[in-house]
Amino acid sequence: MPQAALSGLDEATRDESSLRRFLDGLPGVDQVGVEQRAASLATRSIKKASKLWALNTAISMVDLTTLEGADTVGTVRSLCAKARQPDPERPDTPRVAAVCVYPDLVATAVEALEGTGIGVASVATAFPSGRSNLAVKLADTKLAVESGATEVDMVIDRGAFLSGRYGAVFDEIRAVKQACGDAHLKVILETGELVTYDNVRKASWLALLAGADFIKTSTGKVQPAATLPVTHVMLQAVRDWYTATGELRGVKPAGGIRSAKDAIRYLVAVNEVAGEEWLTPRLFRFGASSLLNDLLLQRRTQLDGHYSGPDYVTVN
Amino acid sequence: MSDTRLAVAKTYKLYIGGKFPRSESGRSYPVTDTRGRFLANVAHASRKDLRDAVVAARKAFAGWSGATAYNRGQVLFRVAEVMEGRRDQFVAEVRAAEGVQPRRAEALVDAAIDRWVYYAGWTDKLSAVLGAANPVAGPYFSFTVPEPTGVVGVFAPQKSSLLGLVSVVAPVLATGCTAVVVTSAERPLPAVTLSEVLATSDVPGGVVNVLTGRAEELAPWMASHADVNALDLTGVEPSARAELERAAADTVKRLVRAPRQEPDWTATPGLERLRPYLEEKTVWHPMGV
């Protein structure tokens, strides 16, 4: 990141035109380069003790998610039970970072997770499309926060972003951040709808400037969801943000990460692109549901010395 | 321009989940005929390929076991049809692999094709032969029905490269189970061609997964794999079997007791390779309601 771009961070947010000047002035992403770099890091082999460490770390980074129309109080409670004790036969298995639900089910999750230290994340702001007015989005956020959510996952207005109304997106994130109070704010960029890596970089910086604690790839409702190259671009953004301001912000890939192998590839990317400080649930999360089972199965394989099967973990 | 054409040296791949991937390990090994002449390279499967194959077989199990017995019979018959179309290729490969005379090789290939037809006929007769309407002293109907056990790990015979292979794989499919097959290490080419036949017949991807490689390397991982329900150790050295059977007992796998010497595969089989892959389910139902 050129120093000229970084020195103007305060300038950037002064008004809409300076924000536009800053975001459009960001260097473009070398598409071939980033894809090749992501692919080459993905070939790295992690074995034995390092693998077990990676699996444990990945488990502790999972935001165990259920975002279905068919969610009930019962399914959320059983998910919370799984979050508290992912593998009941192996009580030393780490707990997940948080449980992620729709706002109306936050109260249920808060009750089920009381005293565990596991966070309750809630999607808000007319998830997943973000198509509503600011008042409704703020009310949505308020419902989540007042029900006890410790983390709020908001979606940006992709329509506004793609039509170049950066100021509108910025103001909306600011307003939601304010409505969050003490709750952490994760800003979902929905990279599958942003089309280019350049847009992903712009949206990342826009969200960081507006005060996002985390930037998150996707809702999980749009294909493609999280990919390694997109996560690379976002990791570069938080690293550059740290270089410029000294503040640590997090990244959360979500959607489409189903195997432990994929998860470990993401951890390699975190270590290589952002740095070791980011290898903690405070700064890196996986938004996933089926991933946890595969992590547990691979963890068992490491400990037992033979392959396990889906009959030995709970059905999601 | 020269009349002599350059030979196309082949490097075959594995067959997992309906696709033909290379071994995850990147390994391959050369295969020769009985006189030591080079035939082709084949993939040398690793334990991770075996893991992937079991995942593929598990994924395919619901669809295959849920298909009607009639439908499964049709599919197995279709395999025989497609094999018939590649009869000459199979004859040449069996000759090269087993070093037999042309006449004998033809007889072996014909017997292998007929074996598919034989097991195709069994699919919708299993429940009649192995199931029962049980006589009970009470106002109940009591039925026993055979159901497929799940994923079967098959170590194909080392010597009989095609007939032996078909004789151990076809019954697994006839019962509605899915298979992870480790082929003969020295004679894998007919198995590779069979996987091409399976891919182009109506057998859904993942129902049969074919790994070329060493039985002694893969057998411990198959035997201890918690997601494999039954094990056929025909292609494993008799001296190594006891240890593998112990490992299989940890997860209560069904075992096919293979004879120490390879049997005469041309003999018409009975139920001995169907029964081990079936679980008996008994249902009680109140009468007259």
Account of the 3D structure:
- Chain A: One of its GO terms (biological process) is deoxyribonucleotide catabolic process.
- Chain A: It holds the Pfam family DeoC.
- Chain A: Belongs to the DeoC/FbaB aldolase family. DeoC type 2 subfamily.
- The complex is a heterodimer of chains A (316) and B (289).
- With 316 residues, chain A is an alpha/beta fold.
- In chain A, 49% of the residues lie in helices and 10% in strands.
- An eight-stranded parallel beta sheet of chain A has the order 7-6-5-4-3-2-1-8.
- In chain A, strand 3 (119-124), helix 8 (134-146) and strand 4 form a beta-alpha-beta unit.
- In chain A, helix 10 (166-180) packs across helix 11.
- The longest helix of chain A is centred in the last third of the chain and has 18 residues, at 228-245.
- The relative contact order of chain A is 0.14.
- With 289 residues, chain B is of the alpha/beta class.
- Chain B has a single domain (40-286), classed as 3-Layer(aba) Sandwich (Aldehyde Dehydrogenase, Chain A, domain 1), CATH 3.40.605.10.
- Chain B contains nine helices and ten strands.
- Chain B has a five-stranded parallel beta sheet, sandwiched between helices. In chain B, strands 3-4-10 form a three-stranded antiparallel beta sheet. A two-stranded antiparallel ribbon of chain B has the order 1-2.
- Chain A binds chain B through residues 305-312, and chain B through 51, 54, 58, 221, 224-228, 247.
